[in-house]
Fold these 2 entries.
Entry 1:
Amino acid sequence: MPEENINKKWEPKIIAFFCNWCTYTAADLAGVSRLKYAPNVKVIRLMCSGRVDPQFILQSLASGADGVLIGGCHPGDCHYSEGNYKMLRRFRLLQRVLRSMGVEDERVRLEWISASEGEKVKTVINEMVDTIRKLGPLGLPGKISVYDKDLAELKNEIDTEIEVDIKPSGKEMVEHA
Ligand code: FES
């Protein structure tokens, strides 16, 4: 099937981790205010953006998500004082790891959205869906299986080389006997 046709059926899948006190409430407000945003986002509510372990983001992408959005309180407004600063530091480090894996920066986004910013939730989600639609599917599960295969081959090569190095040749064994 031509790639063009595959992409016609494909829709971006985005996982959003929203802090309970700000961004989740804003998403709720957007719903109550009947603001329309793309239905491509699955929202996971956490008590604070500081609870977002980088592993959650990697796991989402490895499980087939095309993008991850993290939403937290504005700097200085975190209900646990500095959870959002912790998230920001982890996010910067994770960006480097993702770049080295060939994942574009635009696929993982961190936004500060307060409880009253329903409009911003709508804008950010719609923007992100548009951007990812242009980038196309991430397809990390397929890439990971290729990485695993390469790694297994490399391990076999190394094991074989080590075996050759440490095995004494038959001649040496006779000489030692
Ligand atoms: S409580 Fe919202 S980011 Fe910490």
Entry 2:
Amino acid sequence: MALTCSASERPICRGRVLVRCSSGCSPLGWAPGDASLRRGGWTGPLPYVPGGEFAGVVEGDSGDEAGLHDGSPVYGYPGLTGCYAQYLRCPVEQLAPIPAGLPIADAAAAPIDALTAEQGLTDVLGISAGDSVLITAAAGGLGHFAVQIARILGATVVATASPQHHEFVHRLGAAEVADHTQPDWPEQVREFNGGGAGRVLACAAPTLEGAARAARDGALIATPVRAEYPGAQRVGWQHYNGQPRGSRLIRMAPWFDDGSLTVTVQARYYWQDAAQAHRIVEQGHTRGKLALIVDDDLAAALEI
Ligand SMILES: NC(=O)c1ccc[n+]([C@@H]2O[C@H](COP(=O)([O-])OP(=O)(O)OC[C@H]3O[C@@H](n4cnc5c(N)ncnc54)[C@H](OP(=O)(O)O)[C@@H]3O)[C@@H](O)[C@H]2O)c1
């Protein structure tokens, strides 16, 4: 692989790669997702281009030093904005070649949530084979990656989701799925876990209180959601942000290639229909992700 990184994760190449985008995406969650930035969370200069993640091909020779030549398919996470665009520049250490097992039309839906899920499970929770982990909001963008990655790491997964997503979350690999629309879901989880979850990845704001109740005394709860954390005298909360590391995407490539990690794209929208995509996302019950297609030829091929 040309874009190799050292063990310390320092990229061997520097600079920004010019990318012609096929699709752009985003955390598409509540905060700090595209919709909340659009609603007024963006405090930078106006006008701004939304979108925090992309897939496309390298344009010209800007990636040559990293072995990413004109036309190489790449995907990445350049920052909070700029990806609903036909062209963008991304720091080389924040992108990676698109794995062969990941369709380019869906690849833009992976970087932020796959990286954030993997980092929460490994760096924060230290999940490894034989562990058990509770993943809340497991059918959403972040959660659906987290369930699969926890299984790849060899963990047993207890998850939460609305009933319409239970079969989906089981198919992702969860052993048990509690219905988080029911007020007693934390008690259900405590039964599954024999006294409460010891390690938890809490993937959505409305599940934070239940996550604390479902956790045993002294449990560690990781979350990328910034909030007031309930029950902090009894359980340990660890907030973290997913870091935009191309090297971590490269490390996950074999999982995409062998099919153990997939991205579910509930729907694809042409870029002119971005407002409709935001409306759907703001309902808070997306299965996996939404993707915006910005390339006209790809949109035509996909008939959107
Ligand atoms: N800081 C970071 O680096 C970072 C990175 C990525 C994501 N995030 C944050 O992580 C959060 C999740 O992002 P996402 O992309 O996964 O969002 P998403 O795809 O919109 O998923 C939202 C999830 O919330 C669940 N949910 C909605 N209403 C609920 C309720 N009343 N009770 C319980 N669960 C409910 C949904 O589950 P059902 O449909 O099954 O009800 C769904 O799984 C967002 O706050 C996002 O900003 C942060």
